[in-house]
Write a structure and sequence with these properties.
The chain is mostly helical and 188 residues long. It has helices at residues 16-34, 46-57, 59-74, 87-90, 95-115, 119-148, 154-161, 163-183; strands at 2-5, 11-14, 36-37, 43-44. Helix 1 packs across helix 3 and helix 3 (59-74) runs antiparallel to helix 5 (95-115).
Length: 188
């Protein structure tokens, strides 16, 4: 077994089975990022997969899975939407939303550690994580857009990058919640 130190200095064991689950989780996020739902503003199932991974694998394994996914994309493996990858995607205007997925994990860990793994804390954790992902991604977008193109208003960025995705993301969250409750017994 490989061990990692936690923030508190305790050792947590990550076994072979954990690594297998995490590899499946990375694959799920990648495949779901490639699936594009054509609407007025097309969206992927990427956030659905992040929700499923966190709720199914738990906070620690889910966060590590998301970090591995982002790192794989950053080094050029085409795991992002549209079969893309590379540091240019991360450093682009929408890269903050991808990096925002990483913040969803610690938020999930904090809320479920404080309030338990019940339905309400889990949903609250996912909502809070999504909000932070949106906030970080929007701030990132505005910074990169300002640097490359010029000033843009917050409402404009929200209308481009957040508002069209709120309802689809809430639907994906609900579906992920139901699915994770049905399959979580497999990984615990």
């Amino acid at each position: 077994m490989n061990s990692i130190k936690t923030v508190t200095g305790e050792k947590d064991q990550i076994g072979t089975l954990d690594l297998i689950y995490m590899a499946i989780g990375v694959s799920l996020i990648a495949v779901c990022s490639w699936i594009s739902i054509p609407t007025t503003v097309p969206f992927t199932l990427q956030t659905f997969a992040v929700f499923v991974v966190l709720m199914t694998l738990g906070g620690k394994r889910g966060t590590l899975t998301t970090i591995v996914y982002v790192m794989m994309g950053a080094i050029g493996i085409p795991v992002f939407a549209g079969f893309t990858g590379g540091i240019g995607i991360i450093l682009g205007t929408t890269g903050g939303y991808i990096l925002g997925f990483i913040f969803m994990g610690p938020i999930y860990i904090a809320i479920t550690k404080l309030f338990g793994n019940g339905s309400i804390p889990t949903i609250a954790a996912m909502l809070a994580g999504l909000f932070v992902c949106y906030a970080f991604g929007t701030a990132w977008f505005m910074f990169i857009y300002l640097r490359n193109t010029g000033a843009v208003s917050l409402m404009t960025v929200l209308s481009w990058c957040v508002f069209p995705f709120i309802i689809p993301d809430l639907v994906k969250m609900a579906l992920a919640f139901v699915l994770s409750k049905r399959i979580s017994f497999l990984v615990h």
